[in-house]
Amino acid sequence: MMPNLPVKRMVLYKHGVGFFERLGSLGSESSVTLTFKKEEMNDILKSLAAFPQGDGQVVNVSYETPEEKQKALSKAPLVLSDRQAWLDLVRSLRGCQVRLHITGGETDGAQERIISASGSEFVVSGCMVGLNQIAQKPEQTLVAIMTTGSEADSTPSLRTFLLSQVRGLDILDARSGDDLRYVLDLSQSREEQRSVTIFLDRPNQDLLVSYVAPSPTWRVSYRLVYTPNAPAEGSDVADHSDSGQLFIQGWGIVDNQLDEDLEDVSLTLIAGQPISFIYDLYTPPLVDRPTVEDEARTVAGPVSFAGAPRYSSPESLNDTTAYGFFDSDFDLDEEPTAPGIGGSQFKSARRNLAQATQVQATGVARGELFQYDVGIPVTIKRGQSAMVPILGATLASRKQHWFNAEKLPDHPVVTIVATNTTGLTLERGPATVLEAENYVGEAVLNFTPAEGDFFVPYAVDLGVQISREDESRLETAAIALGKGDYLVHDQWETRQTVYHIDNRNTYPVVLVIEQRILSGYELFDTAEPMEQTAEFQRWKLAIAPRQQSEFCVQQRRKISRHEQILNLNYQTLQAYLHDKFINASLFQELRGILDLHQQIAQMQQEIQKLAKKRDRLSEEQESIAKKLQPLKNSGSENDLREKLAAKMSHLEDERDRLQDTITAQEQTQDSLKQQLQQLLQELH
After folding, report:
1. Which 3 state secondary structure label does DSSP give 550?
2. How far is the C-alpha of 212 from the C-alpha of 613, rounded, in Å?
3. Cα four-point dihedral sign 605, 609, 615, 619
4. What is the per-residue DSSP string for 496-521?
């Protein structure tokens, strides 16, 4: 508790820290002690600053050791147990100068009699010797003290007293007294808290202390009330089919987790995210290295849409030339309102909501940050939380049906679109949407700077059914000669998406279709999008009641592939000519190349046949040679030898003839290949 320096200003951020300022008078004291949670000490040591408001100056700042209390007590000069603290104290004072207050017994000259309200007692001063404990007889425990006379050379005298007679103990040794005070102060300290003491060079000062400490992030919740624009006077049709007024009310939610009440505190809420980290200054560096940890903001997952760059004026969203499916005879404001919702009643509800809460927060841009300064001091009891109004404004808006199959298939989401003209930055937070006196849904507002667009997708319209069909195809755009022996095919890789829309409602709807942009693709034969972001394109459609419609998005990109000319066939070449990808002249040139290539291929087949026949003759010669080896040159074996030799000679002649034919054809083939290469080169 720090009541002498109460919190006067509190600045809360969205990343888990708060900036606190305390201001108060020290009176006759020249120091003040602040108490913090143990886990806050790193931030305190990193950020604490003290500012005397008079002529005084800060001398130093001391703080408790990070050591655990029990460990610190075990190292203390005096160790006092929970059950025998009196015995432990007397035992720890051995050798120290003390004064004992004794009841009962007789006194002598060395004793000073004291008459007290409880009876007669006397005191004995001297040096503590110690205790003499008798087992099983604690009532006979003796305390021994050494006394001396007034003379310097007087003989020391040892006196003993029953410990039960000792009613008081004065510690005359200053150091031992300091040790006892240290142990008692350490014992009464809270394990989870640490004290920081600021010393000034003089008393009677007002002191301002500021610091950063961990704190729950402030949150924001919104109340949104939407009303469509009323029809023009004398007309049943609204001036803007999907336009209306949106009253937005924002509440900041803060928590008091300090060990004290907050009374009349100046409160500031910061939107944005400054860099912050934990740097270990509290732990001695010989034990742990300093650590830095990342801080991350939590991201939830409701349906959300991103604002688009303003390439055109906002009025273009209501352009009557937008892609549509019904005639102008249809009234887009014929959508029936919920029971109890009427124009005058709705305005009354919006006015009452605006008047029911006093918003006195002002917004100030601080570079990349934005702060809400709450004009009225707030009071939050210890352990409680509070909601403070920080925003109240009426904005022009549009109510539309948004569909993105990636985010929510089958049905569109009813979405309010508005521009943040409040002059304030809107922090991310949940929103409850009302229409007149009825609750109609909820959404999450994303972080939106001033003049940025925000989207409130708050309800799914089950009356509109949407299915999506995707188709891919590859189409040849042109064929040209490449730099080598190949043709270059320029092709269109096309992606077609068809949306089948079935509006079963009895009223028309304004539908916005959002589709992801395919990298490298371009739109063709498709209506121009009303807007696009870095990731999505959007089309605005007008859908008639009880009607089925289709909307087609076609995207394509050009790709190229190479086809070897020699891999062509006559049928493919004829198809290229028929589809006018090549002209008649090129057709004839390519056909001549294919004819020559086919001739070379046929010649190669003939050469291979002759080579196989030649190889068979060689194998037969080898077989005859093996048979000749064991035959003799006389008798019947000699006759057989002569027959085999004649056959081998015939085979040799035939083999030589085949080889000559193969060689001649290979030469002819090489000549044809040269002609083929010449024709391929002449194509370019």
Report:
1. strand
2. 97
3. positive
4. EEEEEEEE-SSS-EEEEEEEEPPTT-
Task: Give me the pLDDT at residue 290, please.
Answer: 53
Closest CA to 331 of 239, 399, 233, 426: 239
Q: How confident is the model at residue 497 (pLDDT cuts 50, 70, 90)?
A: very high
Average pLDDT of the segment spanning 627-653? 83
- Whether 205 and 74 have beta carbons less than 8 Å apart is answered as no
CB-based contact 505:326 (threshold 8 Å): no
Torsion of CA 186, 190, 193, 198, to 10 degrees: -50
Q: How far apart are CA 89 and CA 500, in angstroms?
A: 90
- Kindly state the greatest CA–CA separation across the chain: 164
Buried b (16+ CB within 10 A) or exposed e, 430-450: ebbbbbbbeebbbbbbbbbee
Local confidence band at 599 (pLDDT 50, 70, 90 cut-offs): very high
Residue 235, C-beta contacts closer than 8 angstroms, at least 6 positions apart: none
| Cα separations in angstroms, 79 against 65, 72, 131, 192, 228 | 18, 10, 16, 22, 78
**CA distance readout (Å), 433 to 345, 462, 511:** 16, 18, 20
Tokens of 160: 């003993």
How open is the CA angle 496-497-498, to the nearest 5 degrees? 120
| Separation of alpha carbons 669 and 603, rounded Å | 7
**% residues pLDDT > 90 (the chain):** 43
pLDDT band at 224 (very low <50, low <70, confident <90, very high): very high
Portion of the chain with pLDDT greater than 70, in percent:
81
- Dist. CA 394–CA 414, nearest whole Å: 20
Arithmetic mean of pLDDT over the chain? 81
- 299 vs 302, 428, 445, 447, CA distance in Å? 10, 10, 12, 11
* Calpha distance 5→336 (Å, rounded): 60
Query: Contact, 256 vs 265, CB < 8 A?
Result: no
